[in-house]
Structure formats: structure tokens, C-alpha cells
Amino acid sequence: MTHRHNFIIAIDGFSSCGKSTVAKALAKKLKFVFIDSGAMYRAVTLYFMREQIDLENGEAVANALENIHIDFIPNSDKTEIHLNDEDISDEIRQMYISDKVSEVSTIKAVRTAMVAQQQKLGKRRNIVMDGRDIGTTVFPDADLKIFMTADPQVRAARRYLELLSKGEQVTMEEIIKNLAHRDHIDSTREESPLRKAEDAIVLDNSHMTQEDQLTFVIDEYTKRRASK
Ligand code: DC
After folding, report:
1. Is the per-residue pLDDT at 199 higher than 70?
2. Nearest atom in ligand 1 to 39's CA
3. Atom 2 of ligand 1, nearest CA residue
């Protein structure tokens, strides 16, 4: 047990497993702050692409990171993510960012900067944070750790419907390729690769409704809360 007074819930797992859907619903129910750590890596990717930063150039990367300010701004029903005061919530969901974000996330300086910001965000507040390394690196002492997985076909179908509903023209083949590519990079990179923390609880949601998933996580939360 930790001596922190705030409660930290870490949700990790592969891309398009429904992590943020569960995390958002959970945060709403518990009145916790939800932080989408993937959105931060997406914001950095957007900045690097706009500024045409050479990813191999350590100095250019370090300078660029100095100029990146990311904020989460709560708005009536959703939280906006701002990059240097610009709302980039929709832009960072586009496929051209998804195609590049895993590569940007392998850069050590990028991870160090993001992890420091994430730890700051979880200092005193009750939070639900989703990502790849939250339970292993960002908050190894999180009060509850969930590791989410789902069948690759189910994940691709979900992502397809999500992008389609936003009017993006993509094929299932492109999505399957992007997911496989990201899974590979995310789980084999040198810096804090995606892996299940030893004390994380596995949630395979291939055949679960969103309601079932929320019930599952709330049950785990209730048990942990009682013993904190
Ligand atoms: O959760 P997402 O798909 O929006 O994340 C985008 C990318 O960011 C993902 O491919 C890997 C990276 N990421 C990471 O390396 N560490 C995190 N904690 C969250 C995301």
C-alpha cells in the first residue's frame, strides 16, 4: 500500500482495445480526472510533422520538446487537448498521425518529457490514465492496474467503424496493417515497451459490452479502495 492520498488507476494495453472508452466512463462514474497519455504522444507527433523535425537529430528533437506545451482543457462533455493553446483534439486522430506516432514514441527524449508531465498530472488528484506504460513506468505504484486486450479482428473492426463515423476514408486492410505495425513497435521498443505489469489485472473485452467492462473495473476498484 502506498502513502499517497490520491487514487491512481492505470489502464494499459494494445491500440484500439477500447482503453479510453473504459477509462472515460470510469473517470465519469468515479469523478476522477481522465488523462489520455496517447493523445500527448500524438500532439508531439503533430508538432514534429508540422515543424518537419528530423527524428534522427537529437538536438532538434530536444529543442522542439522545449517548445511544446500540452494542456487538457475540460469542456462541457469532453476534454480538449491543446498544443500551444490550439485545440488539436480532432487533428491528432487522423490516420497520418496514427501512422507516425509509434515511431515518435520510441524516442527516449520524447518519453522522458511525457512521463515527467504525466507524473505531474497525477500528483495530488484522483486520476484514470490510459496508455502503454502507465502501470510499468509512469505510476509503478498505481492503486489499480488494468491490462486490456482484445482479438485483433475485433479491434480492427471497432477502429474501422470509429474512423468511418468521423468521415475518414480508410479500408480494413489499412487499419489491420496500422494496428499490427503499432503493436510491433510499441511492444518491441527499447524504452518502456508495452507489457503487462506483474500486478495488473487482465481484461479481455473481445466479447464484452461496454457496460460489462465498466462493471468489471468498478468491482476491482471497490476491492482496492476498501484495502487502501
Ligand atoms: O493510445 P493511442 O493509440 O492514442 O496512442 C498513440 C501512440 O502513442 C501509440 O501507438 C503508442 C504511443 N503511446 C506510448 O508509447 N505510451 C503511452 N503511454 C501512450 C501511447
Report:
1. yes
2. 4
3. 38
Q: Take atom 16 of ligand 1 and give the residue whose Cα is closest.
A: 132
The pLDDT of residue 219 is: 97
Question: For the chain, what percent of residues have pLDDT higher than 70?
Answer: 99
| Within-domain flag for 1 | no
Tell me the CA–centroid distance for residue 220 and ligand 1, in Å: 24
CATH number for 34: 3.40.50.300
Q: What is the tens place of the pLDDT at every residue in 121-164?
A: 999 899 999 999 999 999 999 999 999 999 989 999 998 998 89
Supply the range of the domain harboring residue 126.
8-227
CA dist 53 and 163 (Å) reads 27
Cα 41 to middle of ligand 1, angstroms:
6
Taking the centre of ligand 1 as the mean of its atom positions, its distance from the CA of residue 18, in whole angstroms, is 13
Which residue's C-alpha comes closest to atom 20 of ligand 1? 38
